Amino acid sequence: MSPDGQMFAPNCYDAEPIPDAARAEIDRLLTSGDLFRYTAPEGAPVALLEAEFAQMMGARYALAVASCSAALFLSLKALDLPRGARVLIPAFTFAAVPSAVVHAEMIPVLVEVGANYRVDMADFEAKLADADAVLISHMRGHTSDMDAIMALCDARQIPVVEDAAHSLGTEWNGRKIGTIGRVGCFSFQSYKLINAGEGGILITDDPEIAARCVIMSGAYESNWKKHPGMQNSYMLWQNKLPLYNMRMQNLSAAVIRPQLELVGERVAKGRAGHDRVGDQLNQNPHLIVPPPLPHEQRAPDSIQFNLKGDWTDTEALQFQAEAKRRGITVQVFGLSEGNARAFWNWEFLGPQDDLPQTRAMLMRACDVRLPTRLTNAELDYISDAILSAVSAVKA
């Protein structure tokens, strides 16, 4: 707030704060130097995080790793599919998702995504016939129809991996996202619900997948003995799988663990903030915030909305500039140079068929961060700035 009572634009880019409870453990670790997860015979912070996260999610096994990308890669490798296996992924996702597929020596097959940011089920079903696996990305926390996806995949015995990087705390039909497919992968990167700067974790109920992921993550020699259960499986796979060294280190776990108890509160605040801004934006005839699907309980930390009607590219870019003048950064996915969420920028995949439905959505889909720490006054400032920017363009 300025001296004359004018409100400054809120800071939407600082990540979630690290709880004070983490500091004592961080100091202890720095003093001891025990940063490697396998130094201690038991009770290392990473091991404790795995047990606590698995319990929170209701999963049998959890493995903490260096990033969600690492979790996706290990999950795909643990499916024991042949080289060149075809993996369906939504065409609206982050570049790290097709990259994980390529890194696993598999072929990403892009599926159309509709104006509501969810997988187009007709295109999904058509492409599933030639697929060996599905990596369903709940991009920006938007859940596709998991009942339909799982029914189609189960009927064909096609394994499903969930990229839940943006979806910690989201539920589908009463089930936690990340627990519906064979494996669920989560992110602790700074702009996620839990902030560790970097880091990821995977969960599964499948002991063979868990054992293979543990070995490949870098549990060399006898370090697998420090993971509970599955000792016969570990002995089976030791020295028969390559080591990719994707482990999490203890400092990251020390930062993450005190935030687990804050997940429920952050989910509630994120949903309330999203819906407060969304309700205001939906009153404007030039904007639309797609609603959740009937079975979806979202846990958003950002908001996405579409420019509705006859917007030109020039007007959309002008809208971005007008919002920026008011202190709010709005990203139109398809008009932001080099955007890693626009499939045509994934040149490492080589030539791809165009996806007109997804392309049209990305050219008018807007993205604004809404950290859970924002006050109602700050949320209203964001809404007002966006609506004012629209008026400046569409007056």
Task: Describe this protein's structure.
The chain has 2 domains: 21-260, 3-Layer(aba) Sandwich (Aspartate Aminotransferase, domain 2), CATH 3.40.640; 263-394, Aspartate Aminotransferase, domain 1 (Alpha-Beta Complex). It contains 13 helices and 14 strands. It has helices at residues 21-32, 45-57, 68-78, 96-103, 121-128, 146-156, 207-218, 231-237, 250-260, 263-281, 313-325, 356-362, 376-394; strands at residues 61-65, 86-90, 107-111, 133-137, 160-163, 171-172, 175-176, 183-187, 200-204, 287-288, 296-297, 302-307, 331-332, 365-369. The strands form 3 sheets. The chain has a 7-stranded mixed beta sheet, with helices on both faces. The longest helix has 19 residues, at 263-281. The model is unreliable at 1-5 (pLDDT under 50).
